[in-house]
Design brief:
heterodimer; A: Alpha-Beta Plaits; Alpha-Beta Plaits; five-stranded antiparallel sheet; 15 helices; B: Alpha-Beta Plaits; 18 helices; 18% strand
């Protein structure tokens, strides 16, 4: 039976980690527990960040916020919204897709680099994170980065820790930049495109100076499961425009004119836009209450549909595309097909696949994170040891 | 004007045209490894075997161009300079140097303002200037894949006819290389909207210190595993040698318009910047110049800067004509609240180009009237007026002059401290004033360097910003890449208190 620790301060967390490292114990860091179905090994204790919560500093005029990692994401989003600001990278919420419950924390967002549709133009969580405090595997309290937008003072450990999935250190406090909430938004929808044409349409859209802040393709198999089924018949290739009302309208006209040659063009209003892009962000069509394998695959923008076409010849898959085609949400009908999928990812020019959902025994047996080539695995092992020499923090991220 | 800071007598005789005065060196280098110096001829012969003809420089006279970078106060002649043409040759040189414990200092165009490319006597300089091909431009994926020796501007030039550009734009973009930009995580005037190098870099081919070639990232937006690319970018050449890079291209906006805002005081200009950002308006660039900087740049570029103001902001907006008009109207309204004295819009593309020419040549123009050292601290926006005041007080205390020209929108300050390099005491005062200014930046919640890098220049101030535990953690990560500390070993981390290699 593993223990559950919930330190109430950074200092207490540091003492706990230090004791664990000296005593040979292992800790699995847990925020809201909403982003992963992978169970930690039985011998590991749970280190919960729930006691490390609260907004430390928020200066709207400087567009930065400092919070403790256990702070619920919802609290941060609401506080920012009161000042008409937001997290630019749109952290995704995986609860519905994974069937998890609980409150996502900001620590979990940064530890998994959880980034939604705007990521392909505005950067990922890692691009918004300015500074961190953390406890390394020796139980030392360390800070990296700061609270200014531009900082190249020393090695950028902030980037290294973002998305490290709890493998290197316990984040305790994060400082990130925020952006103004757009005044309004709308979505331009092009109907009836096959995957290949959709890629061409998306490439056209990003080549224009209209600043699309979302470009996704929803094939006919999933289209009806978005936005309450209000999108027109056939596949929907969708483009989000955000900003000042007059500018959004002007850009929409320009975009529609350029896309008309691809297919019938519609416009979705601000309310539909809000729902639609939240559902794209959270892979809503696959929140189906099943344990059918769900993959999140990152490849080059023109490679996503090639990957899916190749897989379709061999196995049953359903898919839709975000990030101009480079992010593929993939639901397998039966087996996880990890080897097949990863072989094809390499074949279409490289990238990586993360298994988010499957039956428990599959999650145990399959490498959920992309295995690294030998030289990189060795390097990652040395980097892990630089933070956590005795291997206190357990994570599937870094091969042991 | 000549800046001479001398290391040993041999160089004194050769370089010092100012009467043999010897300037005290404040910043030390690691002592050369005697075993390496003793094997110099053998090493040169071995490297010659590894490289094609014309790719190795070793005669002392021909080594001189490599003895410093844009941080000209410090110079060291390297042991040799390797100028490989391929990643495989880079790997071969690194494998050899690793085996025999020879330090390696990577070099792009040598435009570092912090001494990041200054070699040392026992080091092989690995110059990437011969690796300057653009390998692939993929507009559908919005990426360009280039060799590390390609200049920053060459990337934008190669894609501009198709309506794209590469966003980070350091002032030295005509000369500086993408490899150097990655090493320093370079910024530029237009980073306010588009981010710095790390936000525009998708992948690299990296040669590790033992000669192993690895690929990090690629055309996909994120890479598997730990974000090693994130730490290699800005690693100042200590973690490996980048030989190729895949960068993100951005569609060029319909139009861009720089506008000049003149103020009677630094406080008003600083407060205006904070209010513009605070109002949720993010122009592409907000650049600040104080009166001395305005005078210097105007004399050089004839850009039409107003001369009767104490502080000048160059605010650039972009988009369609209607969008630019709307954004400018909002900015002008805020500026009025802060008593703006002059608002001047560029009337033509040529005028716009002149405005930027003046700004981008600020360092060069300053160099024509005096020697200077350029600081690079970044501060929270609300602290700008306070730090500008503090900078003036510090510089006055040392009896020196300062010109301020910097990226105000993100709080990245560039005070240029003017001094006379032929007066050793003046030089020492300038260095001391610079250190005091950087400490002030850190003390108000900022950092030592926003975009120039630590190099040797700010190395010994690192303890002012970081605790021992902070530094130890960074050094442990460094050692994970380079256990023997062979790559650019005299830089970034204070020489005392390093872990035993």
């Amino acid at each position: 039976m593993s223990l559950r620790h919930e330190p109430l301060s950074e200092a207490a967390a540091a003492r706990l980690v230090q004791a664990a490292s000296l005593g040979g114990a292992r800790l699995a860091i847990r925020g809201g527990g909403t982003r992963s179905l992978v169970q930690p090994p039985e011998e590991a204790d749970i280190l919960s960040t729930r006691g490390l919560a609260g907004i430390v500093d928020y200066t709207p005029a400087e567009m930065t916020m400092t919070v403790r990692v256990g702070t619920p994401l919802s609290e941060i989003v609401e506080t920012l919204a009161e000042n008409r600001q937001m997290l630019s990278f749109e952290p995704l919420d995986l609860r519905a897709a994974l069937g998890t419950s609980g409150a996502p924390t900001i620590g979990g967002v940064f530890a998994t680099n959880a980034s939604g549709p705007r990521r392909f133009v505005a950067g990922a969580a890692r691009d918004s994170l300015l500074g961190v405090r953390f406890v390394n595997g020796r139980g030392e309290i360390v800070k990296a980065g700061g609270r200014v937008m531009k900082n190249v003072t020393g090695l950028d450990l902030v980037k290294l820790l973002t998305g490290s999935q709890g493998s290197l250190a316990l984040l305790t406090e994060v400082t990130f930049r925020v952006l103004p909430l757009p005044e309004t938004a709308l979505t331009v929808v092009v109907s009836g495109l096959d995957d290949g044409l959709a890629v061409a349409a998306m490439a056209t859209a990003v080549s224009l100076s209209v600043e699309v802040s979302g470009a996704a393709h929803l094939p006919e198999s999933v289209r009806g499961r978005f936005a309450g089924g209000v999108l027109p018949e056939g596949a929907a290739t969708v483009f989000r425009l955000e900003g000042l009302a007059a500018s959004v309208t002007a850009r929409a006209e320009k975009l529609e004119a350029a896309l008309a040659r691809f297919g019938a063009v519609y416009r979705a209003d601000a309310e539909t836009t809000l729902t639609l892009w939240r559902e794209i962000r959270d892979a809503a069509p696959y929140a189906d209450g099943t344990a059918r394998p769900l993959w999140r695959v990152s490849v080059g923008p023109t490679a996503g549909h090639q990957l899916v076409a190749a897989l379709r010849l061999e196995t049953g898959v359903d898919a839709f595309y975000d990030w101009q085609g480079g992010l593929v949400w993939l639901r397998m009908e039966a087996d996880a097909e990890a080897e097949l999928l990863r072989r094809y990812v390499r074949a279409v020019g490289g990238g990586h696949a993360t298994l988010l959902r499957a039956r428990p025994e599959v999650l145990c047996a399959v490498p959920v994170f992309e295995p690294q080539p030998e030289a990189l695995a060795a390097l990652e092992g040395r980097v892990k040891a630089a933070f956590d020499p005795s291997g206190v923090f357990v994570s599937r991220m870094v091969a042991e | 004007m000549l800046i001479i800071c001398l290391i040993d007598e041999e160089v004194v005789k050769k370089k010092d045209h100012s009467g043999g005065r010897r300037i005290m060196q404040q910043i030390g280098f690691l002592a050369p490894r005697p075993g390496v110096l003793a094997r110099r001829e053998e090493i040169v012969a071995d490297l010659a075997d590894l490289l094609p003809e014309g790719c190795l420089v070793h005669e002392p006279r021909r080594l001189v161009p490599f003895e410093t970078d844009a941080f000209v106060s410090y110079r060291r002649l390297p042991l040799a300079v390797a100028l490989p043409e391929t990643t495989q040759q880079v790997a071969a040189v690194l494998k050899y140097c690793h085996r025999y414990g020879i330090p390696v200092v990577p070099r792009g165009a040598g435009t570092s303002l912090s001494g990041g490319a200054i070699p040392q006597e026992d080091a092989v300089v690995l110059g990437l200037s011969k690796m300057s091909r653009i390998l692939e431009v993929d507009f559908a994926s919005r990426t360009a894949t280039v060799e590390a020796g390609v200049t920053n501007l060459a990337i934008s030039d190669a894609v501009s006819a198709d309506g794209y550009f590469y966003a980070p734009d350091p002032s030295s973009q005509l000369a500086c290389t993408i490899g150097g930009n990655i090493g320093m995580n370079s910024g530029g005037a237009h980073c306010l909207k588009y981010g710095v190098t790390t936000n525009n870099l998708l992948g690299v081919k990296l040669v590790l210190v033992d000669g192993t070639i690895v690929e990090l990232g690629g055309k996909a937006l994120d890479a598997p595993g730990l974000d090693l690319l994130g730490v290699v970018c800005g690693g100042e050449g200590q973690l490996g040698i980048v030989t190729e890079a895949t960068v993100r291209l951005i569609a060029r906006p319909e139009g861009a318009r720089p506008v000049l805002f003149g103020f009677d005081s630094a406080e008003e200009a600083g407060a205006c910047v904070a209010d513009v950002i605070g109002a949720g308006i993010i122009p592409v660039a907000i650049e600040y110049m104080d009166k001395p900087a305005i005078e210097i740049c105007e004399a050089f570029a004839k850009a039409g800067y107003p001369m009767d103001v104490e502080a000048l902001l160059i605010v650039e907006v972009e988009g369609s004509e209607a969008e630019m008009d709307a954004m400018l109207a909002a900015i002008i309204e805020i500026a009025r609240r802060h008593g703006v004295k002059v608002v001047k819009e560029s009337q033509s593309a040529m005028e716009a180009a002149l405005i930027w020419k003046g700004r981008k040549s600020a360092f060069g123009a300053t160099g024509r009237i005096a020697d200077y050292i350029c600081m690079d601290g970044t501060v929270p926006l609300g602290q700008l007026p306070h730090v500008l005041r503090g900078t003036a007080e510090i510089v006055a205390k040392y009896g020196l002059r300062v010109a301020n020209v910097f990226h105000a929108g993100d709080g990245n300050m560039h005070p240029l401290i003017l001094f006379n390099a032929n007066d050793p005491e003046d030089a020492a005062r300038a260095e001391a004033a610079g250190n005091d200014i950087l400490k002030l930046c850190v003390d108000v919640g900022g950092c030592l360097t926003g975009e120039h890098g630590v190099g040797i220049e700010k190395r010994d101030l690192m303890r002012h910003q970081y605790s021992e535990a902070d530094l130890a953690q960074q050094m442990a990560v460094r050692a994970a890449f380079d256990p023997q500390w062979l790559l650019n070993p005299s830089k970034v981390f204070p020489l005392e208190g390093r872990p035993a290699a």
